[in-house]
Amino acid sequence: MRSMTGFGQSVREVCGYRVRIDIRSVNHRYSEVTVRVPREWTFLEEPLRKAVQAVLKRGKIDVTVTAERQRVEASEIRIDWAVVEAYLQAAERIRDRLGADDRLSVRDVLAIPDVVRIEDVSQQGRDELVRGVLACAEEALAHVSTMREAEGAHLRADLAGRLASIRAWKESLSALAPEVVEQYRLRLRRRIDELLDGVDDVAEQRIAAEVAIFADRCDISEELTRLDSHFDQFARLLDESEPVGRKLDFLLQEAFREVNTIGAKASDARIASLVVEMKAELEKMREQIQNIE
Question: Where is the Endoribonuclease YicC-like N-terminal domain (predicted)?
């Protein structure tokens, strides 16, 4: 079991760049991966997204790649002579029109945007860059996974403890259910005794019929059986290594519905009190599950 909350970072030198990758993960209903890379490295977005989705199955994940040049070879410098010549011609026209004597210096030319640039990596260099950046991402992902697993272990322990509490309350419900019917039968008989000063055969039959109707109306045996099934499945999922967040959430929804039905059928203060406790604990469990992958 893993949480959806985690952070990982990795730094390494790749193709003359100091590359740093930060990966942040928080809870989300689905899988949403956002990748931010340097403008000239947009070709890395899709490989990085696939690498992340192969490891992190669910969550809102932000991947940020920053790169700093460590060295530049002279052969990698490119001058856009067409842009230089166009600027020079424009400067000539301006000078002729204004009658000025100023001329563009080399410093002025170098200040022109995009005149001098570092040549993009070749296809061979690009393949090497992709491999290096993905290796850096894998290291960052390993850190994220470690953090998510550690947080998942804490969540599992918390959920297991809460499940044990709810199961204990469920057992109390099972013990109380037969008493509710018997208590109703005794109350009904006392009232008839008070009204008729004794119970004849007809009244006894009427009591039995009324008790049978009441017992059928407040019978919670089916709900208790389904709760047992939901809790058993929940306990098994806590030990799964695959993403189980959605399954756990579904089971808790079903358990909440069964407990609600028990509360609607209950005509006993003790059962009503247990139902309130169970619903409160189920809500806390649902909050925790929103962070599970």
Answer: 1-156
Tens digits of per-residue pLDDT, 147-170? 999 999 999 999 999 999 999 999
Task: Say how far apart CA 75 and CA 82 lie, in whole Å.
Answer: 19
Domain at 6-72+124-150: CATH code? 3.30.230
For residue 4, the tally of other CB atoms under 10 A from its CB is: 24
Is the four-CA dihedral 86, 89, 94, 100 of positive or negative sign? positive
Which residues is 68 bridged to in the sheet? 18
**What whole-number distance in Å separates Cα of residue 66 and Cα of residue 140?**
13
pTM of the entire predicted model: 0.69
**How high is the pLDDT of residue 223?**
86
Any bridge partners for residue 117, and if so which?
A: 78
Residues of the chain with pLDDT under 50: 74, 122-123
Q: Are 232 and 278 in contact (CB under 8 A)?
A: no
- Looking at CATH, the fold of the domain delimited by 152-289 is given as Butyryl-CoA Dehydrogenase, subunit A; domain 3 (1.20.140)
